[in-house]
Amino acid sequence: MTQSRLQVWISAARPKTLWAAVAPVLIGSAMAIEAGGAHLLSALAAGFGAVMIQIGTNFANDYFDFKTGADSGHRLGPVRATQAGLVSPSTMKRATAIAFALAFLAGMYLVYRGGWPIVIVGLLSILFGILYTAGPFPLAYTGLADPFVLIFFGPVAVGGTFFVQTISINSSVLVAGLAPGFFSVAILTVNNLRDVTSDSGNQKKTLAVRFGKTFSRFEYLICIVFAAATPVALLLTGSGKPYSLSASLALLATIPSIRAVFRLSDSPQLNEVLASTGKLLLLYSLLFSLGWLL
Q1: Contact 189, 208 (CB under 8 A)
Q2: What are the pLDDT digits (tens) for 127-151?
């Protein structure tokens, strides 16, 4: 089936992964509203910037994996636009630059709101988005992607969203940020488990390649459990909200995905698990945010 140009670019942006950018902004904004410091324009700018950084990272991944030969026609994931010849390398490179430039523009307003801390967060987010698959020691090729994802899609994203609205920060916000971070690592883990054989052949030393399939399966399980336990931890420390515990119920919805992860590897069926984990992240963030506001 022939794809239109728009469909090619939508696929290259990997929409199933974008919830990892949206969810922390939802949580940070809900906590800002509850704290009495909501600022709509800042929330929108943070959301737009986060999505553009994620898309830019995905485009860069598409381009640099093609340049290094990591992508091949034998991969089990969705078709990569550059490797499949749907987009030229030079065009994908320009698209990467445009996505990060748009994130930078959104960041300029956020810097106006939040000052130098946002400069550091924004520049590091863009830098690591590029270094995810570029440079002499790409994060995705060395096994360092997992802690990067936990930190930047978790406490940094939630804390940054809260900070640009309230111009303050507290430990509860950072702890709450761990949950979307763990969910995002779970998404990455499914991706790495699916591609473990092809990655091993291409010298891509993900944690799944370094420590094996069993490690990755338990990494997925632990990430889901820790994410679901975050509202409980906040409540036990006296800084949580009772209704936010509804987000922990998302753990029940993950049972089919957990079963699939422990049953499958090197299987295109894991693409469905990756997509469902992204949807569960959105469900979690909505339940947590609503619960925090009640």
Answers
A1: yes
A2: 888 888 887 778 888 888 999 999 9
d(Cα 284, Cα 154) in Å, to the nearest integer? Answer: 13
Q: Which two tokens stand for residue 179?
A: 């949950």
d(CA 186, CA 146): 9
> DSSP label at 18?
T
Q: Hey, what are 283's tokens?
A: 């469900």
- For residue 109, CA distances in Å to 31, 115, 166, 189, 212 come to 21, 10, 15, 34, 44
Listed as ranges, residues in the chain with pLDDT below 50 are: none
Residue 119 and residue 94: Cα distance in Å, rounded? 23
CA distance 188 to 238: 32
Question: Domains in the chain and their CATH numbers?
Answer: 5-293 (1.10.600)
Amino acid making up residue 17: T
Task: Tally Cβ neighbours within 10 Å of residue 35.
Answer: 16
Name the pTM for this structure. Answer: 0.92
Phi-psi region of 23 (alpha: psi -120 to 50; beta: other; left: phi over 0): alpha
